[in-house]
Each structure stands twice: as structure tokens, then as C-alpha cells.
Write a structure and sequence with these properties.
Strand 16 and strand 17 form a beta hairpin. This protein is 8% helix and 28% strand. The chain folds into three domains: 52 residues, Wheat Germ Agglutinin (Isolectin 2), domain 1, CATH 3.30.60; 83 residues, 2-Layer Sandwich (Wheat Germ Agglutinin (Isolectin 2), domain 1); 91 residues, no CATH class. The protein is built from four helices and 21 strands. The longest helix has 9 residues. It is mainly β. It starts with 11 loop residues before the first strand and ends in a 6-residue tail after the last strand. The structure holds zinc ion (8 copies).
């Protein structure tokens, strides 16, 4: 008999190679075909899945999340969105859940080290102590992300007092949520692939930090007009170039800067150059964002 932290019955090893679908991770696994089972509940569980912790604390949520065998708690098997990676989550299997806030997360996302908060779980064993946890988290409202941009070859420390990590950008019609994943995701507006991006909850749109923080307007050398960040191609000619480097703009979805007076389009990298004109050390407020973001150049004095 084996005890799994998250289940109130002991689990029995099943000494036969069988094909089954794990009730925790939802995967069918022929190679690991010697599962644990819970006879009273009719559950089949991978040996490796029996070791998920009962509760975890993630940075993005103030309460503890509890491992839930969701088929027992969710009445309708609605597809939900994991609030850590912002991708679909199948509620027929195990997930981490806060019932107070209806917050759901994939098992792997909740235990991913980038998301998980290291706290002394013993202290919060008793549910009644959760309010104390709230206070503790309120003191640490500020999340720090480091954004490493390989194209610009510098690190941005994006310090953002985003309690919910939700924002909207005028380049996209739906709201976006910060997504942390172990694999890279390709930005829809440029060539970059990142593990930390913003994702749309409604469609498959992905926006990386670099594009999310592009200034709305910028200047180029002695050019007399400002250039505006543009989200849709400037005409229907079918041929789109950057007038600085004279190379083609590869994807019609990619954002670019445009001087309308002169019909002068450019790649963001070509006009902004290696060092974007962020006001280093100062707060940078986008019109699209409800909270000020502060960009700090890594090598200079940190606050
Ligand atoms: Zn499993
Ligand atoms: Zn059981
Ligand atoms: Zn997830
Ligand atoms: Zn909660
Ligand atoms: Zn991008
Ligand atoms: Zn969308
Ligand atoms: Zn260019
Ligand atoms: Zn111009």
C-alpha cells in the first residue's frame, strides 16, 4: 500500500503491464504500465504521478492551490484555461485548484520552478491560517521578471506590480495574460521564441515582452516626422519592405514602424536599434497597460 498526499485512500500497486489512462495526468502510457490503483474510487494512477504534492503555492496566486481530481468536483467538463500558461486545460483529470477564486492550473505548470513559490507548507497546513498568507503576499505585491533579449543583447528587469498579470494592448483586441512555460512559444508579431510571453485567453495570439514594450511612437535620426507602431500592413501591394535595411518584411502579421507622411515603413529592430529608447530606471507607462512598468538596465545600479 502506498499513500499519495493528495488522496484519502491508500493506493495499491497493480503488478501487471496494462494500458490505462492515468486519472491524474490524463495521459495514456503503455511503457509505464504498472500503475497504482484506488479500488474504492476506481482510479488508475501512474507511479510517478502519485508523488504530486497535495498543495502548492504559486507566485501568481495568493492562496494555496490543492490538487483536485476534478471529475469529482467539476460538474461540467468545461474546457478551462490554465492561469499560469494560459493554454487549455482538460478538467476531466487532475489539476491544481483554488475553490475560493476558481483559479485552475495544470499540474506541471503549478510545480514548475518559475511559477512555484517556496514557502514553508507546514505553516499553512491549517486552512484557517490562509488569511495570514494573504497579508504576507500583500507585502510582496511586486513581481520581478527578468526579460533576457538575445536580439538586443541586454537584460531588462521588468518590475511590474501586476497583481493579476493581465493587460490589454491596442495591437490586439482581447486581453492578454502572462504565460510561463517550460517550452518556448513564438511571438505572433516578430521572430522571437520565448518561455515567458503574454497569451490571449480567447484566441491563440502570443506576444513577447519585446513587442509588448515597443514604444507607440519613435523617431529616426534626422527624419522630421515621428514613426508610429503599426499592426496591419500599410497597403495591399503584396510586397512589404523595410526602407532602412531594404530587406523584405517576412510576415504580414509582424508589427512595424511607419511614417504615414512619407509612406516609410521600417522593421522595429532597424529603427530602434540595439538600445531601444526606454527611459532606463524610470517608470514607463503604456497607454495599453493599467500598471506602470519599470525597465532597469541590468548592469547599472539596481534599486
Ligand atoms: Zn499520470
Ligand atoms: Zn480513493
Ligand atoms: Zn498550464
Ligand atoms: Zn484563491
Ligand atoms: Zn515579438
Ligand atoms: Zn486574442
Ligand atoms: Zn529593416
Ligand atoms: Zn516622414
Amino acid at each position: 500500500m502506498v499513500e499519495a498526499e493528495f488522496h484519502h485512500h491508500p493506493l495499491t500497486p497493480f503488478w501487471k503491464w496494462i494500458t490505462f489512462t492515468c486519472d491524474i495526468c490524463g495521459k495514456e502510457d503503455k511503457d509505464k504500465g504498472m500503475p497504482y490503483m484506488c479500488q474504492p474510487c476506481g482510479l488508475w494512477i501512474h507511479r510517478s504521478c502519485a508523488s504530486f504534492p497535495r498543495s502548492v503555492k504559486v507566485m501568481r496566486h495568493k492562496h494555496l492551490l490543492h490538487l483536485t481530481l476534478s471529475s469529482l468536483e467539476f460538474l461540467q467538463p468545461d474546457p478551462r484555461i490554465c492561469q499560469l500558461c494560459v493554454q487549455k486545460l482538460d478538467t476531466r483529470y487532475g489539476l491544481y485548484y483554488c475553490s475560493k477564486c476558481d483559479f485552475v492550473a495544470h499540474l506541471d505548470c503549478a510545480i514548475f520552478k518559475e511559477n512555484r513559490e517556496d514557502i514553508d507548507m507546514q505553516k499553512f497546513e491549517d486552512e484557517d491560517e490562509v488569511p495570514e498568507l494573504d497579508e504576507l503576499v500583500d507585502l510582496e505585491l511586486t513581481n520581478g521578471f527578468t526579460y533576457n533579449c538575445t536580439i538586443c543583447e541586454f537584460d531588462l528587469d521588468v518590475v511590474c506590480s501586476l497583481k493579476s498579470d493581465i493587460f490589454t494592448h491596442e495591437g490586439h483586441e482581447h486581453r492578454l495574460i502572462l504565460s510561463n512555460t517550460t517550452h518556448t512559444q513564438k511571438c505572433n508579431c516578430c521572430d522571437n521564441e520565448r518561455c515567458q510571453v503574454f497569451r490571449c485567453t480567447t484566441c491563440e495570439f502570443v506576444l513577447d515582452f519585446q513587442c509588448a514594450t515597443l514604444p507607440h511612437t519613435t523617431r529616426y535620426g534626422q527624419h522630421e516626422h515621428p514613426f508610429t507602431l503599426s499592426y496591419r500592413v500599410e497597403d495591399d501591394s503584396g510586397e512589404y519592405y523595410c526602407d532602412i535595411c531594404e530587406e523584405e518584411r517576412q510576415d504580414l502579421k509582424y508589427w512595424f514602424y511607419y511614417c504615414e507622411d512619407c509612406s516609410y515603413p521600417t522593421h522595429p529592430n532597424c529603427i530602434i536599434g540595439k538600445y531601444p529608447n526606454y527611459k532606463f530606471g524610470g517608470a514607463h507607462t503604456f497607454d495599453c497597460h493599467s500598471h506602470p512598468l519599470t525597465f532597469v538596465e541590468e548592469n547599472k545600479d539596481h534599486p
